[in-house]
Amino acid sequence: MTVTINDKSAVGPGYIYLAPNTVPSAGPYVYDRNGTIVFNGAGKLGSGTIHDFQPCVYQKRPRFCAWKGTTSLGYGSGQALILDNQFKVVKALPTSDYHEFKINQAIDAQGQYSDTALLSVYTAVPHDLSDFGVPYENDQGWVVDCHFRAVDPITNKVIFDWSSLDHVPLNETYVQPTGGINGYSQRNAWDYFHLDSVARLDGGDYVISSRHTSTVYRISGKDGSIMWRLGGKRSDFNLQGFSFDSQHDVRVISGGGNTLTLSLFDNEYNTFVQPPRGLSSGKIIELDVTAKTARLVRQYNSPSNDIGNPSGDGGSVQMTNKGNVFIGWGSDAQVTEYTADGRVVYAARFGTSGSTANSYRAFKAHFPGISA
User: Fold this and answer.
1) How far is Cα 187 from Cα 117, in angstroms, rounded to an integer?
2) Rounded to an integer, what is the distance from CA 145 to the centroid of its chain?
3) How does pLDDT run across 89-147, given as a tens digit for each residue?
4) 356 band by pLDDT with thresholds 50, 70 and 90
5) Are 350 and 333 in contact (CB under 8 A)?
6) Does residue 351 contact residue 22 with C-beta atoms inside 8 Å?
7) All residues at 6 or more sequence positions from 8 whose CB lies less than 8 Å from its CB, including other chains
8) Which terminus of the chain, N or C, has fewer Cβ atoms within 10 Å?
9) Any idea what the Cα angle at residue 336 is, between residues 335 and 340, rounded to 5°?
10) Residue 89 pairs with which residues in a beta bridge?
11) What sign has the CA pseudo-torsion 264, 265, 267, 271?
12) Phi/psi of residue 160, nearest 5 degrees
């Protein structure tokens, strides 16, 4: 890892969590701010691709969370894992995709504590795609139905299950049946939606991100209905002087009533849609839910001169405890830390420009047992 520290005093505490893949010795790693490996997890979980490696809390105890499985054509099949500080599996959750795995904690009105796991699940199902140029004969015509599920991690009981096909029409997509997702077979099912993040609001609703419709949706936690759309072909909001495209990692920073502040990684590029529309960036967006307006609060551009090609896949934006913003650039193997007003204080690269190294997300957090 090559590190540049522009202002040591402004860099927040914590360690860098990465899960590089498509490289030798792929796996979960933790680095200190100088780029020294603190933890090397390559091979510790056996074979398979690792994504979303990060610290988490399960049953009130500090743990690690990670997803392990196989990936193809932009999604995966595997298991979300909760690990102890010896990297032993404490809990393996039901089969899921890698795009989302979070554990939320809650205390009910009676003071009872509970954990809920949020998981993404991709399922290929037969579907009539004749309107999109795919003949529907002998059960031909396959589409990916993207689900997100809230699961009790103790019992594996599904508490809430949402389906893209039940709520989002196929014509909202910007990605037509093509290439490896041409819709002609179960293996090559058309990924029209591509769910890539799920966040739960305090009131029980959800905010989800669809890369292939370039839309953020608010989903009712009661009946799964779509409460509003941000971006895409059917936006309920007027985006004031900005746009985003093929985004990842939409997170709720604050709000939940008439005002809601979100962060997202704006890829501006989808490998199924050519050419790139712009350069990737992190964005902070404020929504006035009543007036249906969306305002760009801050945009964080890459400090790297070799980012001429935007990040075609992955990416994450994290608000740190210090108030800084930590960005992982997905398929471009670098991370950057900014002050809230956009000043770059830290940058690190874990792969040379143009290499295949990537980490779907990157996190900055404490490392159990070590202070930072």
Assistant:
1) 28
2) 18
3) 999 998 999 999 999 998 877 888 899 999 999 999 999 999 999 987 766 899 999 99
4) confident
5) yes
6) no
7) none
8) C
9) 145
10) 83
11) negative
12) -150, 135
Please give the full DSSP string across 116-182, using - where no structure is assigned.
EEEEEEEEEEE---GGGT---STT--EEEEEEEEEE-TTT--EEEEEEHHHHS-GGG-S--SBTTB-
Two tokens, residue 141 = 């015509």
Beta-carbon count within 10 A of 9 CB: 6
Q: Can you name the residues that pair with 70 across neighbouring β-strands? A: 77
Encode burial over 339-368: b for 16+ CB neighbours within 10 A, e otherwise. Answer: beeeebbbbbbbbeeeeebbbbbbbbbebe
Supply 104's token pair.
Answer: 């939320």
Evaluate if pTM is beyond 0.85. Answer: yes
Report yes or no: 299 and 341 within 8 Å, Cβ to Cβ: no
Q: How many residues does the chain have?
A: 372
Residue 177 and residue 130 in contact, taking contact as beta carbons nearer than 8 Å: no
Using the structure block, give the residue that is written with the tokens 């709000």: 255
- Give the residue carrying structure tokens 């040591």: 8
Separation between Cα atoms, residue 317 and residue 300, nearest integer Å: 10
Q: What are phi and psi of 164, to 5 degrees?
A: -65, -40
Q: Kindly state the tokens that stand for 282.
A: 């992190």
Residues 6+ apart with CB under 8 A from 14: 320, 321, 364, 365, 366, 367, 372
For residue 59, what are the contacts with CB-CB under 8 A and spacing of at least 6?
A: 115
